[in-house]
Amino acid sequence: MRWLTSLVALTEDWDTGSSSDDASPLDRESLVQEAASLLAVCSGASAAGVVVRDFAFPFGPEMEKSLKVRIKDFSIDNKDFGSVGAQTWGGACVLTETILEDPAAFGLSDTPQLRILELGAGTGLVSLALGKLFESAGSLIPPRTVVATDYYPSVLENLASNIQANFPNSSAVSSCFLDWSSFSDQPGPNPPFDVPFDIVLGADVVYELQHAAWIKSCLPTLLRKPTASSDPLFHLMIPLRTTHSSESSSIDNIFAAPPLHDTPAEEKLYLVIISKEIVVCDAATGRGGDQIEYAYYRIGWR
């Protein structure tokens, strides 16, 4: 990045009228524009304005196939709190990869009329990848419902645009507004939330202290209760940021199993952490040795 910055800065010293090289002013301007664009991309999506990104994930029995998703990201606007949801964060990529590596572990192949909900979907990568996965299976699997939700209007607008770009002729994925903070106070949930879901997904959705509590208040309505043949789960993937250690810890605290002496004599189900796994990924920075840790939670009724 340093040489790109230097190249852009040197343009102030160029005297296009007296230069002895063969490059025309137009060529130089084009070179500078390309360098500036590359610098923005290297600096991250937050510096690059609107970016259309093509993701390709391996999948299949031998991971021999390629699942492609096109995503439109927007830069972060400090005046728009919702703009963080208009970018594709690493947690969404990691959760998508985890699902595609073993779809059966998520119950994607053996549950009839499967209903899947994504919380805080943002640009929609996870839901769109699921839609592509089901689309590739065609009639080999029964119909699936995938609902991607978010709160901010600007995020929902971009999410709808990404759904249309990836599924112009089908309704494989739908989008919907969902306010975690007030959902449990509603007298009766409206469609599509009037029927509980078999799988609930969340990627990088706990970055404020109250988020875990809000999500837990929604899940009794959103996550189907287990049966003899099914075990509905909330799959949550979050990055372990040192700047958000309190927010990360809130998940462990809020979804902890109740003490035995607090459990009533009658049988009652609680939403608890069933498993927690640390996933280590290489950071996409180009610097060797950089790694990011994610916590992958499986939360369900017990």
Supply the key terms.
302 residues, alpha/beta, seven-stranded mixed β-sheet, two-stranded antiparallel ribbon, 8 helices, 9 strands, 23% strand, globular, disordered N terminus
Number of helices: 8
Q: Please state the structural category.
A: alpha/beta
Which blocks of ≥5 consecutive residues have pLDDT under 50?
1-5, 15-20, 36-43
Number of strands: 9
Could you state the order of secondary-structure elements as H and E?
HHEEHEHEHEHEHEHEE
Q: Regarding quaternary structure, how should these chains be classified?
A: single chain
Rg (C-alpha, Å): 23 Å
- The amount of beta strand, in percent, is 15-25%
Give a short account of the largest sheet: 7 strands, mixed
Query: What is the overall silhouette?
Result: globular
Please characterize this protein's 3D structure.
This protein is of the alpha/beta class and 302 residues long. Helix content is 30%, strand content 23%. The protein has helices spanning 2-10, 25-42, 90-101, 125-137, 153-166, 180-183, 211-222, 245-254; strands spanning 51-59, 65-73, 115-119, 145-150, 173-177, 199-203, 233-239, 271-282, 291-301. The strands form two sheets. The chain has a seven-stranded mixed sheet with strand order 5-4-3-6-7-9-8, sandwiched between helices. Strands 1-2 form a two-stranded antiparallel sheet. Helix 1 (2-10) runs antiparallel to helix 2, helix 3 packs parallel to helix 4 (125-137) and helix 7 runs parallel beside helix 8 (245-254). The radius of gyration is 23 Å and the shape is globular. It starts with a helix and ends with a strand. 30% of the residues are buried. Residues 1-5, 15-20 and 36-43 have low confidence and may be disordered.
